[in-house]
Amino acid sequence: MRIVEEIPAALHAEIDAALAWINATQKRSFKVTGIIDPEIAERAGGAAHDLTLILCEGDVCVRERVRVRAVGGFEIAGVDGAREDPPAEIDPLPGARKGWLDRALAMHAFVVLVFYRGFW
Hints:
This protein is elongated. It is built from 3 helices and 5 strands. 27% of the residues lie in helices and 29% in strands.
């Protein structure tokens, strides 16, 4: 499994469609902070394929997997069994929490970070 922070240019349109679908179905405002194994989507060449994204909203980061099909635009669907409990790979990518940490340190003398089984 390879996590890439910089989204390949060839995948921007389908990732934008997937993000819009995920945000609409979950009523969230996630931002894409990474993609897992982007070469799978790049090799698909228009065929249906799974797309696994790392999404963050505030201090919550999740991994979401969707099925993408190029049909005029992009048809997006959830993948059965895509979510694990607790979800794997929910650690934010390096730097994702830096803004929050900087704001917290500006207000307090110190901040305690607790990490338990993948949850912050």
